[in-house]
Amino acid sequence: MPPEITDVSQNGTEKSLEASGSIFEIEELDILKSLNQPRPIHIERNRSFDERSISELSSCLSPRAFGRNADNNAHIMDHFEYGYSPSRRSGYNTPRSSSYFESHPMVAEAWEALRRSLVYFRGQPVGTIAAVDHSVEELNYDQVFVRDFVPSALALLMNGEDEIVKNFLLKTLRLQSREKMIDRFKLGDGVMPASFKVLHDPVRNHETLIADFGESAIGRVAPVDSGFWWIILLRAYTKHTGDSSLADLPECQKGMRLILSLCLSEGFDTFPTLLCADGCCMIDRRMGVYGYPIEIQSLFFMALRCALLLLKQDDAGKDFVDLITNRLHALSYHMRSYFWLDLKQLNDIYRYKTEEYSHTAVNKFNVMPDSLPDWVFDFMPSHGGYFVGNVSPAKMDFRWFCLGNCMAILSSLATPEQSAAIMDLIESRWEELVGEMPLKICYPAIESHEWRIVTGCDPKNTRWSYHNGGSWPVLLWLLTAACIKTGRPQTARRAIELAESRLSKDHWPEYYDGKLGRYVGKQARKFQTWSIAGYLVAKMMLEDPSHLGMISLGEDKQTKPLIKRSASWTV
Q1: CA dihedral sign, ordered 482, 488, 490, 494
Q2: Which family does the record claim for this protein (predicted)?
């Protein structure tokens, strides 16, 4: 019988974990030895590298230089994709710069709070815990979540602290390689953990890592987004350091292929989008996002593009390169054609015919015009648009989701014109989407009878709270990155100033409640790490926009489809 170790699950009850299952001994001697060997440095395969000075970038990125023309902005973005200096450390006021204490006092406080959240495994920092709030029960907030660590990792990379990020990538990679069982069912080999924690045995003076692949999560749902975030972060690390030795490791190459195998396998789907369960991403509770949620599709697209830059063109990798290229073509066409909503498309849907047959159908998903919610007609501005939350047979979720739309901009899933339209929408609907605290995770909130049906009467996701229209400060870094890429730094600055008026005074809450985000969330943890890190990333990125290169990709002309709709029915 394997030894058992008692752990406390996220609902506060004790459970036993077998050492052969979720408790992993992490041994990385072989990997570390291979990393210590001198290796050639490669900067983004098949990409040119044009070194430019900070002053040149800064002049390009000044508010006066930014225009509203999509072509001009696209030209500016070439500086990010091809001119980002991987060895440049942020000049912003971080602990490693001379003017650190001369900046906004929140910056110093944020760095101190981020340091307190660091988690150590056998003497090495390996991540940051979700929150350092000792006033309430820890539940699973004492764990290192893959998605939560991303803004922390970006802040640390910008500050020149690459080692922590490398340790995190290696630890999660080794956790992926273990057998994953939920009850009697085996998960796919490529599934990445949602989170992990360090368990210390004081008797043996020994530490082990406990991983959660969904067996302890609410609803027992495996995290679809963890693998995508891991690939995106690996690319950010490689881009920033200019060193591909980590990504070139056989273990990392295999890890990427395992993740991709889960997503690129053939099945019964007739769409290139990924079919997902509710609760598989940042919105990790029942919120009606099952099907083809925009958050997963945008992360999927970004991860595919990052993997295309990181995978070796060897016997094992070249087949995946072809699969990725074909999927990117299909996915970009599908998303830009069927998920996109602007005033014209909204009017077209309003006039749709139903029950259309044959390949000439315009209403291909048989969406009923009567299913259009009343709020969307007033919400849609004359100039602006966004990717809707979900599209599947006879179902279109018209809600706005922040993460999916911002990531669509950063990954170039959105065309330059669509990216500009998304930003137009945010600026036109500032009161609804930003309010008094950035940023709404989704809009609008569902309530009354719909809330009972969709959430199952979830007391945490009541209207304008938590995932149901709550305001999440962590989304500030995504908004800032999208603003910089689309040439609107003044919009990011406005949002950051809003956050600075409250975040520190309120002790860095996880989320805010209310239609305007006026109230600290009723169950929000204080000193939430990704609220802290999201603020730091936004500040450093606005000060030194070249950092955008870590998390942004320019438009790939090869994946830009010619979008045409059926002409079988005209208005």
Answers
A1: negative
A2: Belongs to the glycosyl hydrolase 100 family.
The CA distances from residue 120 to 116, 171, 401, in Å, are 11, 12, 34
Q: pLDDT-derived band of residue 560, with 50, 70 and 90 as boundaries? A: low
Q: Which helix (H) or strand (E) holds 7?
A: strand 4-8
Structure tokens at 107: 């910056």
Radius of gyration over every alpha carbon of the chain, rounded to an integer in angstroms: 23
Phi then psi for residue 137, to 5 deg, are -65, 140
> Is the separation of the CB atoms in 461 and 452 below 8 Å?
no
**Parallel/antiparallel/unpaired status of strands 144-145 and 124-128:** unpaired
25 contacts: CB under 8 Å, gap ≥ 6: 208
Question: Given CA atoms 121, 125, 127, 131 in this order, what sign does their dihedral have?
Answer: positive
Which contacts (CB < 8 Å, 24+ apart) does range 342-346 have?
A: 342/380, 342/384, 342/385, 342/421, 343/380, 343/381, 343/382, 343/384, 343/385, 345/385, 346/372, 346/376, 346/377, 346/380
Long-range contacts, 521-524 (Cβ 8 Å, 24+): 521/465, 521/466, 521/470, 522/465, 523/460, 523/466
Q: For 467-483, write each residue's pLDDT tens digit.
A: 999 999 999 999 999 99
Secondary structure letter of residue 550 according to DSSP = G
Task: Note if the pTM is more than 0.85.
Answer: no
Q: Omega of the bond prior to 413 within 30 degrees of 0, cis?
A: no
> Which positions ≥6 away from 543 have C-beta within 8 Å?
90, 91, 92
